[in-house]
Amino acid sequence: MGLLSLAAAAAIEAVVLEPGYGMGFNGSITVEYRPVVLYADGRYTTDAAGALKAAPRIDGRWQRSGGGWRLKGSDGKTTELEAKLQARPAPPGTPLEGVYRSVGGVGAAGTGVAVVATAQSLLFSRDGTVREDRAAGTAAKASRHQAAGRYRVEGWTLTITGDDGRADTRLLYLFPDGDGALGWGDATLSRRKGAP
Questions:
Q1: At the N or C end, where does the chain have fewer CB atoms within 10 A?
Q2: For residues 73 and 57, is the Cβ–Cβ distance under 8 A?
Q3: CA-to-CA distance for 166 and 26, rounded, in angstroms?
Q4: What is the enclosing helix (H) or strand (E) of 130?
Q5: Homologous superfamily of 98-191
Q6: DSSP secondary-structure letter at 179?
Q7: Of 9, 21, 18, 20, nearest to 69 (Cα)?
């Protein structure tokens, strides 16, 4: 992990989930929880993919409000976030175990909009190894990528180092209600029931 990622992760005060809606596979409406990263200096970002950059995109400022937080966006809009939606960091060295998957897509059959499906799976083992499987495609064309490597959990970060030596460090947050889902960068992955 680069020093910039370490410094940015150390500056995180909290990650809070903001409920919203999105478009799921085949046109279904899904509930989505978007992470809001609160930095200790009073700034925040909703850009989970860029939250660990040396100069992350800043969307406004936050302050404590009762048991939760009040966000004031750069556009002047105010949003209240509840304390019960506060995500958890992982203690350094936390072992992850099981298959975590995200499935998404756009379009819907019969609407004239092409159906594009995407899926990502991470199979974590307690010994520190991980296998990644990504797939995307339409009815006419599909692609698949598989990789293996090792992972390291440290607070708000998850680093996956592939067998080729390349390291990918992203924001990690655990959902408040258990280990059924985790966030990695801008992706939310749900644990498959019955998986190891």
A1: C
A2: no
A3: 35
A4: strand 129-137
A5: YedD-like protein (2.40.128.500)
A6: S
A7: 18
The angle at the Cα of 103, spanning 146 to 141, to the nearest 5 degrees, equals: 65
Q: What is the DSSP string of 27-82?
A: G-EEEEEEEEEEETTSEEES-GGGTTSSS----EEEEEETTEEEEEETTS-EEEE-
- Token pair for 9: 């992760």
pLDDT in tens, 14-64: 999 998 776 655 556 666 789 999 999 999 999 999 999 989 999 999 999
Instruction: Please name the residue that has the structure tokens 């460090």.
Output: 169
Q: Which amino acid is it at 163? A: D
| Terminal-residue alpha carbon distance, the chain | 28
How far is the C-alpha of 158 from the C-alpha of 172, rounded, in Å?
A: 5
Domain range list for the chain? 3-85, 98-191
Is pTM beyond 0.85 here?
no
Which secondary structure element, helix H or strand E, spans residue 124, and what is its range?
A: strand 113-124
Which of 152, 184, 160 has its CA nearest to residue 15? 184
